[in-house]
Design brief:
mainly alpha, elongated
């Protein structure tokens, strides 16, 4: 029986061309003959829609026409800045979600995909999912990886009938290096989202997300290596990635790594990870930890518990 192909394979196009909503827009750019000062302002705004302030400021210095054309986006980033202040209560202002949303929307109207995504996040939080999805889609079409990722996740959560559309947008964001999208794409490929499972592709995206610092992906990479699912079985690699996830606060990884250390005879180190897993709510760790503690002298018990109490997770995404 012929295996279905997963939707991401149908969307391999250049990132540059993806910025444009129509072939006509793309032809406008090609007709500029290398003189980017003549680039139409609407095309320039689409290209710069996802720029952060440093990149936008640099682009504004290219020529006078770019400086004028990018003025709305510079204004948008000021509204974005104030929106974040109102949302989190920073910069001497009190938290005010209404003012935050108003600022984000003003930035979105001026073309910033960053403001669109933040406005979408607030709409989602207050239950207005349709408005959130509309903003995510607008940002996604303009090539914003966070907008693409959020749109894909929104479809999976709120509109399950659009699973293939969700995977398409997660794939686009993943190609741009968005680690959360890479992890979510891997989950879809692993579990199957309206199409056959693709374990090798899933493992590849888990690994990319893990290498980018996404802790949940590290745990899944460890599992893949452990059982040889999508990756060549390697207990050494499984142990390495499980420890990386555990050191970054993943509770299941802390339990698994602690159990592995116990089986290897590393009782003191095992207790530290099992205690951390216990604190995080992994009930299965309690029994194993107590069995080991009964085998240790009092001074060693006090030492490992002190290590666990003073433990700090490594930075993670």
């Amino acid at each position: 029986m012929k295996q279905k192909t997963w939707p991401g394979r149908q969307y391999r196009q250049s990132t540059f061309k993806f910025w444009f909503s129509s072939e006509a827009d793309f032809r406008k750019l090609r007709s500029s003959d290398g003189d980017f000062s003549t680039l139409p302002s609407d095309i320039l705004t689409k290209i710069a829609a996802s720029f952060t302030l440093p990149h936008l400021q640099a682009a504004s210095l290219v020529c006078k026409s770019w400086s004028e054309g990018l003025r709305p986006l510079r204004e948008a980033l000021l509204f974005l800045k104030w929106g974040k202040r109102f949302k989190h209560g920073r910069g001497g202002v009190r938290p005010n979600l209404d003012k935050a949303l108003d600022s984000f929307l003003k930035g979105a109207v001026r073309g910033s995909t960053l403001a669109m995504v933040d406005a979408g996040l607030l709409y989602w939080e207050i239950g207005k999912k349709d408005k959130a999805i509309a903003l995510y889609k607008k940002a996604a079409v303009l090539g914003d990886p966070s907008g693409q990722c959020n749109l894909g996740l929104s479809y999976l959560q709120a509109e399950p009938s659009k699973r293939k559309e969700a995977v398409k947008w997660l794939f686009q964001a993943s190609k741009s290096g968005h680690v959360r999208a890479q992890y979510q794409l891997a989950l879809c490929l692993h579990q199957g989202c309206g199409f056959d499972r693709h374990l090798h592709d899933a493992a590849r995206w888990y690994l990319k997300a893990a290498e980018g610092g996404y802790v949940r992906a590290m745990y899944h990479v460890a599992l893949c290596y452990s059982v040889g699912e999508g990756l060549a079985q390697s207990h050494r690699q499984a142990r390495k990635w499980m420890k990386r996830a555990a050191d970054r606060g993943h509770s299941k990884a802390q339990y698994e790594h602690g159990l592995g250390l116990f089986l290897e005879g590393e009782k003191l180190k095992a207790v530290v990870y099992l205690e951390l897993a216990t604190h995080a709510g992994e009930t299965a760790a309690v029994h194993v930890k107590n069995v080991i503690l009964q085998q240790l002298p009092a001074t060693s018990r006090d030492h490992v518990m002190n290590l666990a109490n003073n433990w700090r997770a490594l930075p993670s995404l």
